[in-house]
Amino acid sequence: MYTDKVMDHFSNPRNVGEIENADGVGEVGNASCGDIMKIFLKVEDNVIKEIKFKTFGCGAAIATSSMVTEMAIGKTLEEAMELTNASVAEALDGLPPAKMHCSNLAADALHEAIKNYMEKGKA
Amino acid sequence: MKRIYLDYNATTPVLPEVLEAMLPFYRENFGNPSSVHWAGRAVAGAVERAREQVARLINASPAEIVFVSCGSEGDDFAIKGTADALREQGNHIITTAVEHPAVLETCKFLEKRGFEVTYLPVDSDGMLDIAVLGKAITPKTILISAMWGNNETGALFPIEEIGAVARKHRIRFHTDAVQAVGKVPVDVQKAQVDLLVLSGHKIGAPKGVGAIYIRKGTRMTPLLHGGHQERNRRAGTHNVAGIVGLGLACEIAGRDLTAKMEKVRYLRDKLERGIFAAVPEIKLNGHPEKRLPNTLNVSFAYIEGESLLLNLDMKGIAASSGSACTSGSLEPSHVMGAMCVEVTLAHSSTRLSLGPETTEEEIDYVLEVLPPIVQRLREMSPLYNCRTPMSCEECSIVKRV
Ligand SMILES: Cc1ncc(COP(=O)(O)O)c(C=O)c1O
Ligand code: FES
To answer: Number of folded domains in chain B?
Structure first.
């Protein structure tokens, strides 16, 4: 059902965990199945230096979380904002149709974390 | 890699003896049992012998057994066949909230055709309150449909008490015994059931064959119209090999049933105790005692079922889950819902169902492999070890489903 890339990221997820005193935290829930993803950021000079995630969800949700952290690290905030759910799914060589909604969590949580960082900056 | 199959409630391997007994009916004994010539005669006897074997397992007489294509067909036939035959008497059906979709969806279909259906609730152990059943009966009630053993939790309904209530009110009683047959003693006389459904692939016979017991004198409208097979109760040329396999599987199931039950119960209890000893914050789903001896359903707080299943699968262990993420519909299990299991717990409900082939080594292996997997997934979960209690927002996300 899942591609080798999905299974790879699912069985060896990258960047699992939390960042203490993170610069930005984003959390989203999945209305379709009730799952949750949380992303923590460390930002330096407008670039994502460190990123970690925690996910309560299915195999696809964990794999997309892991993939989105790999894709975002080292990117500027503007570049990271352009990452889409579709591009995460694509980087995993695709997801089963019933699991496309899980990839929504990943990019959304990242975008939330970035917005959270920006709002903090304003305050 | 080791391969450990703990999903016997989903399906079972065909027993080697059963397969051997079936093969001639694909080769030299290929006849149609309805034919008068030698080829037909050679086969008709085998179908009748299988009918006797099925009847003996459930204490029925052979004429009361009708072969069908699967458990779902049996349930559909029982309910629709009754609804149509008894239409003049009433339009009310009583069933339970935790039935298999073969029953629930059939009832929903009938609701669209003007029938009224009461779905009896269950308690947090998945158990039915017999007093609630009594109160649901109206003069228009024509059928009570309640399963013998639940496929997800293994909960065993008080079938004899339900049968007594149904008999007292002269209401027809159907039971889906697909999970019970072969796992616990099933006696249609003691339970006073009028219609009982069983399925081959749950008891070591192949997929695509089942049977329905129809008590003598029970008026039914056929589901399949056509030829005169099965005394006009079910049209269609017999699945002879499948029927022969079902018959033998029933005979084998009846042999030393008590001893086999005790063996599987011992292993299931060992698994249950081992998991509870090794993993904190878990919940048993289903009744602690009134339960099929092979079934264990546990929820592991903070984690999701599909990711647990995938991890078990990577270690060669086959199990199943009530998680919304595995359901295809993204709805969590209706059984967990009816038992009011908290949503995140329903998400991680995991069913381990043992079979006659399960060994103690396999159970030991699962006990070795499972706890670290749960721990690893918990470490990954935003719900685990939260430094701050869940915010309202988190809580509303979790509770939304
Ligand atoms: C309780 C119950 N009823 C009915 C069925 C359907 O049986 P079949 O797969 O033979 O259609 C199943 C099988 O999943 C079951 O567990
Ligand atoms: S997160 Fe629930 S289906 Fe993927």
So the answer is: 2
